[in-house]
C-alpha cells in the first residue's frame, strides 16, 4: 500500500507576548501552592468506580435475566448503560489516554484499554484525538472531528451541498449513530487511512497487526454485548438488538452534545491555512488558534462537569492535556484572567442550553452556505 504524507500545516511561532508561558507558570504555582498533584485524586477514582458500575451493573442484570419479563425494565437497563458508556468515554478513557491518571504510564495504559471493552480501539483514538484533533482543531482535512464525509457541514471551509440547508434538523440523527458507526466500521476505515498517511508507522503498528487487533476486539465486544444477552437474558433476540441500538443512540447523542458546542459555534475561528512557498502555514500560533476555536460552557454546573469529565472546560483541556480533568474547574478562572490580561478572547457560554442553542444556530448558518468573512 502506497504511503502519502499527511498534508500538515505549520503554525506561526509562539506568541511574543508570552501568554502561554505566563498561564503555565500560574497553573504550576496553583498546584505547588496547594500542595496537590495534577494527576487523579480521590474524587477521580471515586468517579471511575461510579461510571464503571453504571455500565456493568445494568449489564449483569440483563445477562442474568433479572430484567426479563418486563420490557420497560429491560430497555431501562440498556438506557442506563448508555450513561455509563458515555461516562466511561468522557471521564475514564479520555483521561487515561491523555496520560493524566498517574505519572506511571503503565497505569494510564491499563485504564485506557477500557475503550476496547466498550467497543473502540485505543491506537486509532489516540491518533484521531490526541494528534489530529488537539493539534489541528477545526482545520478541515486534518481534524477528523469535523469530517462527516459531506453529510453534515461543520466548517465554513467545507463545500456546501443542497441538503445541508436541513442539517440543523437531521444532524441529531447522525449524532445518535456516531458510536454505532464507531463500533462497527470506523476503526477499520481509520486503520486503512492512517496506514496511507504513515500514522500507523509512527505508532509502531503495521496495518495487518492493527486489523487483526480490531477484529479480535470487535468479536469480544459483540460477543459479550449481544450474543450473551441473547443466550441468557430470557428476552427475544430482537429485544436485545433494540436495547443495544437504544444504548448507542443515547450514548451518541450524549457525547455529541458534550463535544459539539465546544468547537462548532459561531465564535469559532475556523482559520484556513495560508499557502506560502509550497507549504501550508497558519497565521496564528497554536495557542492562539486553540483559544480561537474552543469554547467553554456551563462552568457552574457541577453535575455536568462531573459527568462530562470536565469537557465543558474545553479551553483548559486543550491547553493542559497533561492535567486530570478534576482540576479544570479551579484552573478555569486562572486561564480566563490571564487571557484577559493579554487581550485574548476567552469564549464561554454560561449554560448548557445556551451552548446547545449556539451550536444549532451554527448548524443552520453553515447549512445555508455561511462562510467566515476574510
TrEMBL record:
Example of a GO cellular component annotation carried by this entry: membrane
Domain Fatty acid desaturase, first and last residues per copy: 71-348
Transmembrane intervals: 52-80, 169-189, 210-231, 237-259
Keyword terms of this UniProt record: Membrane, Transmembrane, Transmembrane helix
InterPro entries: FA_desaturase_dom, Fatty_acid_desaturase
Domain of life: Bacteria
Name of the featured protein: Linoleoyl-CoA desaturase
Species in which this protein is naturally found: Chitinophaga ginsengisoli
Higher taxonomy: Bacteria, Pseudomonadati, Bacteroidota, Chitinophagia, Chitinophagales
